[in-house]
Structure formats: structure tokens, C-alpha cells
Design goal:
It contains 22 helices and eleven strands. It is of the alpha+beta class.
């Protein structure tokens, strides 16, 4: 037996038995340029400016989602018959689900206007991509099947729930991985017990969790809430992300005007920033390294606004954060923002590039209104709890913690360039 082993900090041993067709396919896909590109896309963007250990990549995460999906299916196979083709499509989709992420993950797509899900589907279907060639070598229809599965077409099944739901392999892995690599210790939960409690409601063909897993699911959802509060919504992380967005927006504006210093050998980043479609070989060059190289060039460019933003990102001279959560009435926050904006403009600054308002929001668990038609599995996103008698109940009706976990977590923050902090804080204090 030929076996390949990858050691992973979260899942330890990830094994591929190359005499098994599915494992051979997965291992071949890992060598595709589009998968290897993910080594150069950091999972948490610029979160390492707050948590120095957070330099792990989308490649690590993709491997972890694949392995978590395999573990979930292995557990379910102890009690249910798992279709071989369904298993193959599910696990391959788990490995490929993040192919379309651009540099700095979600930040770049907000500027380009192209969503990573759309790019993922495009790469899989592109006959020029390495991923496509590997898939069609196994089955000519496989790329189309994978994309349809990622879109939950023709209908949602428990396989889809494993990849995309409130209880999916994607969330399981990124919480544990981000928790470990940041050293935050807020995102730990018992993955093995959650997986052990997974079951299938065959009447709905949907993933559910047995009542014995309620406590473990509560801990998982609490971990998700805490990670958003302490890591994903961290003020330094959000400040850096906002500055990346401003820098790319400024660069895009200058590019349209023909005034942007640009490294000619790096046209892929240029086209992507303008929302243009990339060929497969160009897409393989789109990574954090390419954009950071641009930041280095722009930091010495003629445009003072762009140069200042880029130097701030390169040398951690980030915007300062002023908490606006003291304003219970949003109108008070808007008044403070307007006053700071006028102050910066009055002092000869550029409010559009030297300040921004940020209001991240989310919750650990989402509840959904009942459909009213007696269909307990009508909502695609609800976590379903199945008891020994086979009865399905929405998680929110059986968990005493669900109301707390469903509360919206939100911050109101004003981020300003360092030179404006003292005056901005004085203005906010006078209004508040």
C-alpha cells in the first residue's frame, strides 16, 4: 500500500492511501496550481498584525475542511449507507470550496466586486485550469457535478449540510485552526464529540445532531461567538482590513485615471482589481505576495495618499480606533462621524482616505421563523436536533443557551489616521 501523510496542527495525521481512487484524486488535486496558490493566501488576511502567529494559509484550511468532511462521513457511515459518488463529490468539494479567494481573503473581493464563490465555480469549470484537467481525467462530468453541489443543486441534502450550514466542516475547521494559530484560546470546542453526535434524518435527507450532542454544539456555537468578538472583529484586524480596502480603492481610482505606478510584470493583480476576468495561468499568480509587492511600489509613489496607506500597512502604522458604542442612538454616532469628517477636511486632510466608520455585526447562532406548514426541515440553515424517537426539533427550542447565542454582536467604531486621533477623540467626547 502506498500512503502519503501530511502532518497538520489541528487534525494531526491526514493520510492518503494512493491505492484508493478517491484518495488518489484528492492527492492529485493538492498539486494543482490553483490549490498551491492557496499557500500564498493567508487565512486571516492581516490578522497577524494583532496576533503574530496568524500566518496560516487557505491551503491549510482547505486540507482541514476536507479532513473534517471525511471524518463526518466516516462517522455517519457507521449507521447509514453513504453513497460512494455522493461521498466523492462532497469531499472533493470540501477541498476545493475556497479556490476563488483573492488576496487578503474577503477584502479584495469587496473592492473588485467579484465574489470568491463565483470565482471558485469558474476555476473548476475552466478547461485551462489544472483542477479541471484532474477532475475530467476521473469523470468528464465531474467539474459540473462539483459546481452544482457547491450551489446545493438540484436540492439540498445532508451532503450539502456537511459543507455549508451552521454545523459544517468549514466552520469546524476555521474555528479550531484560527483559535490555535492566534493563540487566543477563545475558539476551542470538542470536535470529536460533535462529529460523534451527527446523524441523518432520512425523511428530510438532512444532517441533524442527536440530543446527546446538544452541550457540545452549544460549546461550538459559543466558541464561534467568542472568536468573532475577540479575533475576527478585533479593532486592529478591522483597522488593517479597512486600510487595505482604502488602499485598493485609491489604487483603482488612479488606475482608471492612468496615474498609477504599476509593476508591468504583475498584470494579473491589475486586472483583478478592476474586476476583469483572469485566465487560469493569470489567476494562479493572484496572491498576497503580488499585492504586497504592489504596496511596496506604491509606498514610494507620487500619490501621497496611497503611499501613506501602503507604508502604514507595511510597517504597522495603522489607523487608531475610537469606540462609538457609547452612543445608544445611532444618530449620535452619525453626528460624531460628520463632525470628525468636517474637522479633517477643514485641516486640509482627505476624510475619504484618512478615516472610516466600521460596524461589524454577527451572532453565534441564527434562529429562523417556522415555515408554518409543519415541515421541520424546511429551512436550509437551521440546526436540527433528533431525539431517540426520530423527532426533529430546531436547536433553538431545546437549547437553554440559544437565546444568548442568538444575540447580535456589534461594534461601532471610527478609525482615523494617527495624526487625527487626539482631535477626533475630543470631538467624540464633546458630543457623547
Amino acid at each position: 500500500m502506498s500512503e502519503k501523510i501530511i502532518r497538520d496542527p489541528v487534525h494531526d495525521v491526514i493520510a492518503f492511501r494512493l491505492d484508493q481512487p478517491l484518495d488518489r484524486l484528492l492527492f492529485d488535486l493538492l498539486a494543482a496550481p490553483e490549490l498551491q496558490r492557496l499557500r500564498r493566501i493567508r487565512q486571516l488576511g492581516l490578522a497577524s498584525l494583532a496576533y503574530p502567529g496568524a500566518d496560516h494559509s487557505r491551503y491549510n484550511h482547505s486540507l482541514g475542511v476536507m479532513e473534517t468532511a471525511r471524518k463526518a462521513l466516516d462517522q455517519l457511515a457507521r449507521s447509514f449507507r453513504i453513497d460512494d459518488e455522493g461521498r466523492m463529490i462532497c469531499v472533493v468539494a470540501a477541498l476545493l470550496h475556497d479556490l476563488g479567494h483573492g488576496p487578503f481573503s474577503h477584502v479584495f473581493e469587496r473592492v473588485s466586486g467579484v465574489h470568491h464563490e463565483e470565482v471558485t465555480h469558474r476555476v473548476i469549470l475552466d478547461e485551462g485550469s489544472g483542477v479541471h484537467r484532474i477532475l475530467v481525467a476521473r469523470d468528464a462530468a465531474l467539474p459540473t457535478k462539483i459546481v452544482a453541489f457547491l450551489q446545493c443543486q438540484p436540492r439540498r441534502t445532508f451532503f450539502c449540510d456537511i459543507i455549508s450550514s451552521q454545523l459544517d466542516a468549514d466552520r469546524f475547521d476555521y474555528l479550531l485552526r484560527d483559535n490555535l494559530m492566534t493563540g487566543s484560546r477563545y475558539g476551542s470546542f470538542d470536535l470529536e464529540w460533535v462529529l460523534h453526535a451527527l446523524t441523518i434524518d432520512e425523511s428530510c435527507d438532512r444532517l441533524a445532531v442527536h440530543t446527546k450532542g446538544i452541550n457540545a454544539v452549544e460549546t461550538y456555537l459559543q466558541a464561534r461567538f467568542n472568536m468573532y468578538r475577540n479575533v475576527y472583529f478585533h479593532k486592529v484586524v478591522r483597522s488593517a482590513e479597512g486600510m487595505v480596502k482604502l488602499a485598493l480603492q485609491r489604487a483603482k481610482r488612479l488606475a482608471v485615471q492612468g496615474r498609477l505606478d504599476w509593476p508591468q510584470f504583475n498584470q494579473a493583480a491589475y486586472k483583478a482589481m478592476l474586476g476583469q476576468r483572469l485566465a487560469a495561468e493569470e489567476f494562479a499568480d493572484m496572491d498576497d505576495v503580488a499585492v504586497m509587492h504592489c504596496f511596496k511600489i506604491w509606498s514610494h509613489g507620487d500619490d501621497a495618499i496611497l503611499a501613506t496607506l501602503c507604508r502604514g500597512l507595511l510597517f504597522r502604522k495603522l489607523f487608531k480606533t475610537i469606540d462609538l458604542s457609547r452612543f445608544e442612538d445611532p444618530r449620535g454616532a452619525r453626528s460624531a462621524i460628520t463632525a470628525v469628517e468636517r474637522m479633517i477636511a477643514g485641516q486640509g486632510g482627505e476624510p475619504g482616505y484618512e478615516m472610516f466608520f466600521d460596524q461589524p455585526a454577527g451572532s453565534g447562532y441564527e434562529t429562523f421563523a417556522a415555515s408554518g406548514d409543519g415541515d421541520d426541515c424546511s429551512d436550509a440553515n437551521e440546526i436540527l436536533v433528533r431525539d431517540d424517537a426520530g423527532k426533529l426539533t430546531p436547536f433553538g427550542q431545546v437549547s437553554p443557551m440559544s437565546r444568548l447565542l442568538n444575540r447580535q454582536l456589534m461594534f461601532r467604531r471610527l478609525h482615523v489616521a494617527p495624526q487625527w486621533r487626539d482631535r477626533a477623540e475630543a470631538i467624540v467626547k464633546s458630543i457623547g
